[in-house]
Design a protein that fits this description.
By secondary structure, the protein is of the alpha+beta class. It has three domains: about 1-45, no CATH class; about 50-155, no CATH class; about 170-200, no CATH class. The chain contains ten helices and five strands. A hairpin with a 4-residue loop joins strand 1 and strand 2 (about 25). The protein is flat.
Length: about 200
C-alpha cells in the first residue's frame, strides 16, 4: 500500500536523518521504495545529543501513529519509561537532579497513556503481559489478532488461596491450674473432636 502510494504520488513525507551521521531515523521504507524506483525525496536533518536521544525520538514518533494496537502502544510507553528512569538515575549520580523532572518520571506511563487513551489499569495489564506472556501471544496482540484482557487473564499472577474462616463451634475450656474458663472458636470438625475428647475424660 505504501509502495502504491509512492508510485502514484511520490514521497510526501521527508526522510528524517540524524544530522552529521547520515543515519535514517524515520522513513526507511520510504527511502528503500524511492531508491529502487528512482523517485526523488526530501531529507530533513535533525540534531540529537546521542543514540539514546535518537531512540527516544523514534519511540515517541511511533507512538503517534494511528495503525498501532493498544498493546503495541503500551510496549512503546514501557520502553520510554525505562529510558526516563535511566535518565533520572544519571541525573541523580551527577548530582543535578531536577525535582520537577523526578516527579514526572514516576508517572511517565500514566502521562503517555493518557495521550493515547490507555488507562493506568490497562497499562498495568500490558506490563504484566510484556513480562509473562509468550512471544506468540505478544505478537498476536501486536498484529491485532488477540485482545489484551484474555491474554492478561491467562498470565496474571495467581492469588493465594485465602485461609478458611473458622466457623460456628465455640468451645469452652476450664483450666484446672487457674480454675478459669476460656472460650475460642474453631472449625466444626475440630470442635467435634474436642467435644469427644472432653466427654471421654468425664
Amino acid at each position: 500500500m505504501l509502495e502504491e502510494s509512492i508510485l502514484d504520488e511520490g514521497v510526501r513525507d521527508p526522510i528524517v536523518v540524524w544530522a552529521g551521521h547520515g543515519t535514517i531515523v524515520d522513513g526507511h521504507n520510504r527511502y528503500n521504495i524511492a531508491t529502487e524506483n528512482e523517485i526523488s525525496y526530501e531529507i530533513r536533518e535533525m540534531e540529537f545529543s546521542d543514540e539514546d536521544a535518537v531512540i527516544e525520538w523514534i519511540l515517541r514518533n511511533q507512538l503517534a501513529r494511528r495503525n498501532l494496537t493498544d498493546y503495541s502502544r503500551g510496549e512503546l510507553i514501557l520502553r520510554l519509561e525505562t529510558i526516563e528512569a535511566a535518565k533520572a538515575r544519571e541525573r541523580m549520580l551527577a548530582g543535578v537532579a531536577d525535582p520537577s523532572a523526578e516527579r514526572q518520571q514516576g508517572r511517565t506511563s500514566e502521562i503517555l497513556g493518557e495521550k493515547v487513551q490507555i488507562s493506568p489499569r490497562q497499562m498495568a495489564k500490558i506490563k504484566v503481559i510484556s513480562e509473562q506472556a509468550s512471544d506468540e501471544d505478544k505478537q498476536a496482540l501486536r498484529n491485532g489478532e488477540s485482545k489484551i484482557e484474555p491474554v492478561y487473564q491467562k498470565v496474571k499472577p495467581k492469588k493465594e488461596n485465602p485461609k478458611p474462616k473458622m466457623t460456628g463451634v465455640e468451645i469452652t475450656i476450664r483450666w484446672l491450674t487457674t480454675n478459669t474458663y476460656e472460650k475460642f472458636r474453631c472449625s466444626d470438625e475440630t470442635g467435634e473432636e474436642i467435644k469427644n475428647l472432653l466427654s471421654e475424660e468425664e
